Amino acid sequence: MDGNTEGLWVFDSETLEQEAVVEAVEGQTIQGVVMSSKSGRWYLSWSEGSTLEGTHRDVLAALDPSTGRIVERATFSDRSVAGPLVYEPTRNEIVAYGSGSFGARFFDAETLELNRQHPIGPTDSVEVLAAVVDTERGKIYFGVSRFGKTRKVRVYDVGEQTVVRSFRPTADPALRGSGVTDLALSPGGRFLYTTTYSLDTGGAFSAVDLEAGEVVAEHPAGSYANLAVHPNGRSVYVDCPAGGWRGLIPTKRVLRYNVEARKVEVFIDGAEGRGVKGLGSDAALVATHITALSDDQGIVMVVSGPTRDGEDVHMVRVDRETGKALSTYSLPRDERGYLRATITDLQLSSGPGGK
């Protein structure tokens, strides 16, 4: 969360009722969050201090969700940690990634000590924008951009501790973007799903068959779109990204990819003014983060846009088949009517209850 109430907020995945606020970071915005599948710990990253005053520090912290307290904390003087994180269970490591100046850094999940760092691209100009871990095959897929011109997926072998190959995630020249912005794997890891961004033509969604080594589906999408793979593996959802705050025009559509048919359809068509069913939306709701819940609980999206009665909705759970709203959440406002926070990330806990 960001705003006047930072920290890690916990919601019931079915009702979206707020259950806890972990005041883990006072006055700072959490920039990376990931959960260990082994220990159940949550790992957070953020920046603090001032670059101008020479007090800047990047922070990596481990949080015990049962107590809401930080149990380990490490600080670094360079800008190498604050940003996205993934968890790699084979070596029990937290992986931080970002600009090519350090590529990816691998930290011991118990001690938070830096084990090693590895370049993901051939030069320091490579920006790493996304990563996903294939635990069954011991691979980490990194999505990269170089000067906003090259988009590739680089494959890091956990055992060999090096990048072993790279490939382009789209085949159609018209859909070649400037960088890979999100990655997701199918259950079992056969298919890799990607989104890209472009400053000119918009982004794209693609599905890559990793066994066959070919792109099996691709479709235009909004730049900086996020992905959610349903646990049954039959559908992939592509949100309408926060393109507006990046100076890009959002598509106002949430897409759904049918894995068996290998076809993309419009799941929620906000561009036609309908928005999410059941919210009575006059204006299209723009989804900025998306995650798929287990079983038939549906899809949760972070959204931005008023309903017909003028009420702001900031998170909504929808039926995975119909797109109808099942539950909603609105961020609190202060006494002057201003929002107290914004949702900067959305992740599903694999612990009891699926928060």
From TrEMBL:
UniProt cross-references to InterPro entries, sorted A to Z: Quino_amine_DH_bsu, WD40/YVTN_repeat-like_dom_sf
- According to UniProt, the name of this protein is YncE family protein
- Its source organism is Longimonas halophila
